[in-house]
Amino acid sequence: MNLKGKDFISLTDFSADEILYLLNYAQELKEQTKNGVLTPVLKDKNLILIFSKPSLRTRVSFEIGMKQLGGSSLTLKQDEINLGVRETISDTARVLSRYADCVMIRTFAHKDVEEFAKYSSVPVINGLTDDSHPCQIMADLLTIKEHFKTLKGLKLVYVGDGNNVANSLLAGCALTGVDVTISCPEGYEPMEKYFSFAKEAAKKSGAKVEIEHNPQKAVSGANIIYTDVWASMGQETQADERKEIFKSYQVNEELVAKAQSNVIVLHCLPAHREEEITHNVIEKFADIIFEQAENRMHAQKAIMAALVK
Ligand code: CP
Ligand code: NVA
């Protein structure tokens, strides 16, 4: 499998085989890391991280992951670079390509990452946009695969806002054969582009893809319940209004009890306890939720190594 030089901007750009290859590679790298035998395959390579939005997991897991692979990283925050404002994105991309071997970007408009990639001569990784969060979903699939020892045939139900995480989950699950149901209020569905991609991919993988507005019905038979915040970064002014709209979509013990007895609950974090998920549910599933957070690092090591090595 040769992914060298490719960008990692959306899961919709990848085949099922490529995603499964990256997941297996991530598992291998995780094992090597745990056993202290990780080969520094990115020795002397440099990663630049650009953030127009805040981050805990993405920044730290990329920085430490790159260090574990023998390379180095440099983080630029919004106040330092002001992506697309201080100078054009195309100029920034051409400058940074002269210094770095890979660039990760977290920003608002998805098209800004695409624009950057068009002008960058080094691989560009999407560290979250308003549309998608592909690195998160690679960590999620890795976590599910480790836990259930399989992906195919499982049922994942995402309860909440049809946001960037939901869009990428649709694509990632459908490609890898995980049945995926999005349970959201009417008018808060995932983007049509991701839904129709998932429907197409599901024809090949055998996965079921559906939207079920009733969360109680949706979680019936679920092996995985997944949720995320009701107001994403950039939607802070809508937070109060959204609390009202989404209140019947809370992942609480009553909802979890309606799923399969072997159900796990995942959350990409940060979580707003007592909003989209209760404190008790997070604490009950804390082991797997923090494994999921750790897996960001292993999944991203595989992505960086595959694109850059
Ligand atoms: N899940 C995730 O992307 O976390 P951060 O926003 O903290 O990076
Ligand atoms: N949907 C959330 C994900 C955070 C990791 C956001 O965009 O803020």
3D structure, described in words:
By secondary structure, this protein is α/β, with parallel strands linked by helices. The protein is built from 13 helices and nine strands. It has helices spanning 16-34, 57-68, 78-81, 89-99, 110-119, 134-148, 164-176, 192-205, 215-218, 239-246, 253-256, 279-284, 286-308; strands spanning 46-51, 72-77, 102-106, 124-126, 155-159, 179-183, 209-211, 224-227, 264-267. Strand 1 (46-51), helix 2 and strand 2 (72-77) form a beta-alpha-beta unit. Helix 1 packs across helix 6, helix 1 crosses helix 13 and helix 4 (89-99) packs across helix 5. The chain starts with 15 loop residues before the first helix and ends with a helix.
